[in-house]
Design goal:
The protein has helices at 32-42, 72-84, 130-134, 155-160, 165-169, 210-221; strands at residues 2-10, 19-25, 47-53, 56-62, 67-68, 94-98, 101-108, 111-117, 122-123, 140-144, 147-151, 175-181, 189-195, 200-203, 225-230, 236-243, 246-251, 253-262. It is an alpha+beta fold. It folds into 2 domains: 2-111 and 250-262, Roll (Diaminopimelate Epimerase, Chain A, domain 1); 122-244, Diaminopimelate Epimerase, Chain A, domain 1 (Roll), CATH 3.10.310.
Length: 263
């Protein structure tokens, strides 16, 4: 049996930039252990598995180590594949049904817009050892679920971070967002995302982190529409619109290659 598999760079329109995700098109539901093995074989931050389901498409995401509740860039990549391959007409909305709920996806010109649940931030503290492993002092420490959000005083600090990932892995955690206001015109804030606990030292562009960052910066800057850049080595741009308990996240995507997965 052969299954279509794609690799798509998300949150970019230039190949070999943005965040790469693998997308596997299933005909019937697959076993979680097998999907995790495929994700480990692909060795990308996320591999998405798309399967037709009544009312839409079931969507699941795996890192090389674990299944996750929500992934932005692999969702964007999956929608891109469904439209590009002709499985879904380009003028039709896509509804993904996932562990995190119903995720409507639509085309907005050259952009793909994802409708995600917003996540709040509360003031918190860091476990002992995290701040030295990050290597810089944040001006604000927040907590959102199992993730930490660290705001820094300047974009240059965020860009220069070189975390000690071995030290971080020795401390219980899930994900760490580093962010600051942007000093550049046309960009509201920047970020980086570190998740060595789930097999991703640094994720190039993280849609799910912006369900936290969007509401956080919307409240700080007093605006509901924002432009964000994730300033990893590959980098990517996201357009955000915060509306109540939802965050609309828009970006572009480009297919790098497609092939067949032998099973």
């Amino acid at each position: 049996m052969k299954l279509p598999i794609y690799q798509v760079d998300a949150f970019t329109d230039e190949p070999l930039t943005g965040n790469p995700a693998a997308v596997v098109l299933l005909e019937t539901p697959a076993e979680a252990g097998w999907m995790c093995s495929v994700a480990a074989e692909m060795n990308l931050s996320e591999t998405a598995f798309v399967c037709p389901q009544e009312g839409g498409f079931n969507l699941r995401w795996f890192t090389p180590k674990v299944e996750v509740e929500l992934c932005g860039h692999a969702t964007l990549a999956s929608a891109h594949v469904l439209w590009e391959s002709g499985i879904v007409p380009e003028d039709h909305e896509i509804l993904f049904l996932a562990r995190s709920g119903r995720l409507p996806i639509r085309k907005e010109g050259e952009f793909i817009q994802m409708d995600f649940p917003a996540a709040g931030v509360t003031t918190g503290t860091l476990p002992e050892g995290v701040q030295p492993a990050i290597g810089a002092q944040p001006s604000f420490i927040g907590v959102s679920g199992e993730k930490w959000l660290l705001e820094f005083a300047d974009e240059s600090i965020v860009r220069s971070l070189a975390p000690d990932f071995a030290a971080l892995r020795s401390i219980k955690g899930r994900g760490l967002i580093a962010t600051s206001r942007s000093g550049r015109q046309g960009v509201d804030f920047v970020s980086r995302y570190f998740a060595p606990w789930i097999g991703i030292d640094e994720d190039p562009v993280t849609g799910s982190a912006h369900t936290i960052l969007g509401p956080y910066w919307a409240a700080k800057l007093g605006k509901s529409e924002l432009v964000a850049q994730q300033v990893s080595s590959r980098g990517g741009t996201l357009r955000l619109q915060v509306s109540g308990n939802r965050v609309l996240i828009a970006g572009r995507a480009v297919t790098v290659f497609r092939g067949e997965l032998f099973v």
